[in-house]
Specification:
Helices cover 48% and strands 10% of the residues. An eight-stranded mixed β-sheet has the order 3-2-1-4-5-6-7-8, with helices on both faces. β2, α5 and β3 form a beta-alpha-beta unit. The protein is globular, with a radius of gyration of 21 Å. α1 packs antiparallel against α2, α7 packs parallel to α10 and α9 runs antiparallel to α10. It has 343 residues and is α/β, with parallel strands linked by helices.
Length: 343
């Protein structure tokens, strides 16, 4: 007979503590794995059982977390999570990173392949999360790309791949994961977008109208998408400067992502009003989202030129993911060093 971890846990909880020790968890996991093997239950079923039976913590996803800031965010969140999803584009590196973390004692780390520049990969990832866990509590969007100054790729060819990952792909993942976040175990499901101060509104100083549009409280998804598409088109045609756009694809991708966070927060606020007693969508949880800048860090993306460690850079996104709501951080806000800053 397959014994659920929850039953084993309850038999221990009546002793000195209500929480399981790590040693106890490992014994229970071993018992469940053995049962699965003996009964021929597939690995996916064991993952589900682990998620639903392990100590009561959130199910957390961190994208781009096989190295750098993403890995450090994951390390900070894993100890208080029931399941910690290490999502990364490269299966080989992702598996190695997850295995190393498990060997270091973070037994709840599970690798899942995810390339946010691929719609197919995003849909497969979301479907896998639905099948194996049925919900998600926290999503940290850390994955991103940046062309380095030494890259020979012509500027007009940099906008599309940069925006595909940093903006379009990130939004597509949020939309794909929203149904799972609505079913979260925690009271307030949350999303953290790792952005950058490279995306501050000041990069649009040459065009105050664009500044006002991106920061308008009445901005919609449709209008934001149109603005980003116009930037992408103008870069491709080599006329972005004369159209009032800055000469940075990375900066614009992060500016657009921060702007989206504010649009999303407004959508959720409006939806929450409709979810009042007897209202539209009653019973669905509102999702909290905030954006942040980790700072200039010593990572592969910066060619290890940043003065700040990846661990330091991970502090603010990890805080937002774990305690931001409880500490009163504003939905749609832009944060740096655990404080909201002017965008």
């Amino acid at each position: 007979m397959l014994v659920p971890l929850s039953r084993l846990a309850s038999s221990q909880a009546s002793s000195s503590s209500a929480s399981l020790s790590r040693q106890g968890i490992l014994r229970n996991v071993f018992a469940t794995v053995t049962s699965c093997l003996l009964l021929g239950i597939p690995a996916g079923a064991f993952t589900t059982r682990l998620a639903m039976s392990a100590p009561s913590g959130p199910i957390v996803v961190v994208t781009g977390s096989n190295k750098g800031i993403g890995l450090e965010i994951l390390k900070k969140l894993a100890p208080t999570s029931s399941v910690m999803i290490l999502a990364a584009r490269d299966p080989g590196r992702g598996q190695v990173a997850a295995q190393k973390l498990r060997e270091e004692g973070l037994d709840n780390v599970v690798f899942r392949p995810l390339d946010i520049s691929s719609s197919e990969s995003i849909q497969q990832f979301a479907a896998g999360m639905e099948k194996d866990f049925g919900l998600t509590d926290v999503l940290v969007n850390n994955a991103g790309i940046a062309f380095k100054n030494s890259d020979p790729t012509p500027f007009r060819e940099q906008a599309t791949p940069t925006l595909k990952t940093n903006f379009w792909g990130t939004i597509e993942l949020i939309d794909a994961m929203t149904p799972l976040l609505r079913k979260a175990k925690i009271e307030t499901p949350r999303i953290v977008n790792v952005a950058s101060q490279s995306g501050r509104l000041s990069i649009l100083n040459t065009d105050k109208n664009k500044q006002e549009e991106f920061s308008s409280p009445g901005l919609t998804r449709e209008r934001l998408s149109a603005l980003v598409s116009k930037f992408e088109k103008d870069v491709k045609e080599g006329k972005h400067k004369e159209e009032g756009w800055p000469n940075t694809c990375y900066g614009m991708s992060k500016l657009a992502l921060i702007s989206f966070g504010k649009v999303f927060a407004h959508e959720e606020k409006e939806g929450k009003a409709k979810r009042g007693i007897g209202g539209e969508g009653e019973g669905r949880k509102a999702i909290w989202l905030a954006s942040c800048c980790p700072g200039w860090c010593d990572t592969d993306m910066s060619s290890h030129s940043g003065p700040r460690s990846a661990e330091h850079g991970a502090r603010t996104p990890a805080w937002l993911a774990s305690k931001g709501v409880e500490d009163g951080a504003k939905a749609g806000g832009f944060f740096y060093d655990e404080k909201e800053i002017n965008w």
